[in-house]
Design a protein that fits this description.
9 helices; alpha/beta; 36% helix; Rossmann fold; eight-stranded mixed β-sheet
Length: 273
């Protein structure tokens, strides 16, 4: 939480009867902050596609590299929506490793993330780390709360990592990104990763989608063209829209077990001009 915020929160109500993407991602990464329902669906997915845990790590490694890159461009403010359960190094640790005074706001809608945000998200004395409990589609509430920590008149790096494939077109995926882009000042960056069917056989992608939907979760693995729509009006930086493992690999270390595994995700970083 914000190191200057000593407020208390009522105990969150955690729904353990339905899988949640944040807890499943934690399970894929080898974490312990998940429930049997999350592990059950995770095991089904890994049983069909054994590379998924490595793919999750490749996605997270992209987040690390993109955070280093945007901090290297002089950005000192970060808004991470769909943050998931903290897994070190977290985004604020990467950003504040480049600039100790970086200010970071995390956002997620799973109450279990709030529990761990309070306990684990501690930044440098010079910087600030805060957390917003909200659904990604409630962009007005997110921006309003984030303004308590971030100055939206200055550049912000907005991270939407492995989030939008859980929000369908009919639920306003493109509209929510547009609203967030509108809140950013020129010089800000949009950082995104997104699962795609483009690198795998159609039947394999359909099977993964069907497994998620059987678990009560939306899964929309968008094509390259559909992914590119999120960046309309922005200037995509080099190397453009690429697979997660192809985005500035020199800024990080290879993920163990990565050789021979495709991330299955498109990524890009784009600047608002």
């Amino acid at each position: 939480m914000d190191q200057q915020d000593s407020g208390t929160h009522a105990p969150p109500r955690i729904d353990t009867g339905k899988p949640h993407p944040a807890r499943m991602y934690d399970w894929f990464l080898g974490g312990k902050d998940n429930y049997p329902v999350d592990e059950a669906l995770g095991r089904q997915l890994v049983g069909f596609a054994p590379g998924i845990p490595v793919m999750a790590r490749m996605n997270r490694a992209f987040m690390h590299r993109a955070t280093r890159w945007t901090a290297g461009q002089g950005v000192r403010q970060f808004l991470d929506i769909g943050t998931g359960i903290p897994t070190e190094p977290n985004l604020h640790q990467v950003a504040q490793g480049i600039a100790a005074d970086a200010r970071v706001v995390y956002c997620d809608n799973d109450p279990i993330v709030l529990v761990h945000a309070e306990a684990l998200l501690r930044g440098t004395p010079e910087g600030v780390v805060d957390y917003v409990q909200a659904d990604a589609r409630d962009t007005a509430a997110i921006v309003e709360r984030a303004r308590e920590t971030l100055d939206f008149e200055r550049p912000v790096a907005l991270s939407l990592i492995a989030l939008l494939h859980f929000i369908g077109d009919e639920d306003g995926a493109y509209e929510l990104v547009e609203r967030l882009k509108d809140a950013l000042t020129p010089g800000s960056y949009l950082v995104m990763s997104h699962l795609t069917p483009d690198f795998h056989p159609e039947e394999a992608s359909k099977k993964v989608t069907d497994l998620y939907r059987a678990g009560g979760l939306t899964m929309d693995m968008r094509s390259r063209d559909r992914f590119a729509r999120f960046f309309e009006g922005l200037e995509i930086v080099a190397p453009g829209i690429v697979a997660a493992e192809e985005w500035h690999p020199e800024l990080g270390e290879p993920v163990p077990g990565q050789e021979g595994v495709h991330s299955g995700a498109y990524v890009a970083v784009a600047r608002k001009v």
